Structure formats: C-alpha cells, structure tokens
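Quick start: what a row looks like.
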Amino acid sequence: MLESIGEYYSSNIAREVMKGLKENAFHCKHTGGSAPLGYDVGENKKLVINEREAEAVRIIYDMYINGYSYRNIAEYLNSKGYVTKKGNKFMPNSVSFYEILNNLKYTGTYVYNCSSSKDYSHRYKPEEEIIRITGGCPAIISMETFQKAAERRKSVTAKGQLGSKHFYLCSGIVVCGECGKKMFARKRFGKYTFNVYCCTSYKADCSNIKEVDSARLDEHTVK
C-alpha cells in the first residue's frame, strides 16, 4: 500500500510539474535549462536577444545558406572570437549546428514540446501536443532565411542518401572458398575507397582475410 501511495504521489507531482511548464509555455516563458544561443532569459522568464550571440546565429545561417560546411563555419566563428552558450569554441559537428539551424524560435515563433527529450533522434511529437506561438519571442532571423536553410538541409540529406547507396550484385550469393560461409558486402576506406566482399567469419574461425573487389566480381558474374 505504501508503495502504491508513493507511486501515486510521484505521478501526481510529475503531472503538476508538466502542467506548470505548459502554462509557462502558453505565456511564452522559458521553461528551464540554458536559453538557445542568441538569447538570454529576462526577469519575466521571457527570452531577450543577446546581441553578441545573435550575430553568431546570423553568421551561421548566412554561411550555411551560401554553401559553407560546418567546419568552415566553426573555423570562421572561432577566428572572430565567438563562443558557444557554454563559452567554448565552436566544433564542426552536425549535432550542435543542427540544433541552431532547426530552431524555429530564431524566427520569433515560440515553440515548446516539439520533440522527445528522452533521446537525440529529433523525432517530433504529434502536432496536437506541440505549442507554437507566432511572435512569442524576439526574432533574430527572418522566416525566409530559416526556410532557405531548411531547403539546403533537405538537399544535402538527399545527396548524402543517394551517394551512400551502392548496389552489390552478388550480395547474399557469393561464399567463402575456405569455410563455405557467405561473404558480406562492405566499404573499405583508406587512401582510396573500395566496395568489397569478405568472409563473414574471418575474425572467428576462418583464415580467409582476402577481400574481393565487388566491381570486378559483379562484372565477371554478368559476363
């Protein structure tokens, strides 16, 4: 019984906390944690523009739209003395820049409860659970700029997916000449990149560590 009471009490607290967070969100107040780069939290818990950081946000969008890579952007920002919200140098990784380039708040649209906080998959919640309030916070960039960045992200993603695909004609068919087990297809990276077949058990009980060039084998198979 005590465990049941404790569980009910804990669940009730969680519901009340969530209720309070949503109430703050409907009033466009910051709901906790660090403010996004470009903003500070004012006395009334609403976001206010941090001019120095806002400059960095505008530079990120402008350079990204004009075709610069994350590495180029990070190097430029660091050379000009800009820092992250935590005071660190910018790193050329996709996660940190993704958060900035995908944050609708920079257009002046307050957003809350958009994606799951339990993982980093950026999976959006159902539309009815998301709170969006146009003009709920001060804008750093225009909606047009935000949309241009979104268009480039889609373009880059599409090219990456297209470029990553390679058709292996003999996949699931070719077998190892020593142990008789199937050989799997993979990319081998080095000075040059090759698409190859290799034995699935060469690290375990097969001594065949030789790789077969997939292009040559596939071509020979067709002939």
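That is the whole record. Strands lie at 39-41, 47-49, 109-112, 131-134, 183-188, 194-199, 212-213. Residues 30 and 45 are 5 Å apart (CA to CA).
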